[in-house]
Design goal:
108 residues; mainly alpha; 69% helix; elongated
């Protein structure tokens, strides 16, 4: 029982890190990067761009926490596939939203 709770708490902590990253992005004066080790393109409106990225990170973190709920069912539960597939789909959707919506809207 405690292993399930610890696993969910670690999963939730990672989701909370994304929410903290969203808060940082919202308060930042410089454009926040989405891709690792990549320079941010020239942004037309930094404040609105940062708010859009912050909203994306916040939603990602909250959905990540929700997708961790099947961890509470136990190690041999088939529900864990929902978490694994859900995180893959969530990540692809986040990348698509950034590339197709946010980047296109705020790129100079």
């Amino acid at each position: 029982m405690t292993g399930r709770i610890i696993g969910f708490l670690i999963w939730s902590a990672i989701g909370c890190l994304f929410v903290c990253l969203a808060i940082y992005a919202c308060l930042s004066k410089k454009p926040v990067g989405f891709w690792a080790n990549a320079d941010v393109f020239e942004v037309s409106d930094i404040k609105k761009y940062n708010h859009a990225v912050a909203k994306l990170f916040c939603i990602f973190g909250i959905v990540l926490i929700i997708l961790g709920i099947p961890l509470l069912a136990g190690q041999n539960s088939g529900w864990i596939l929902l978490s694994v597939a859900g995180v893959m789909i969530e990540s692809i959707v986040a990348m698509a939203v950034y590339s197709l919506v946010i980047e296109k809207k705020y790129k100079k």
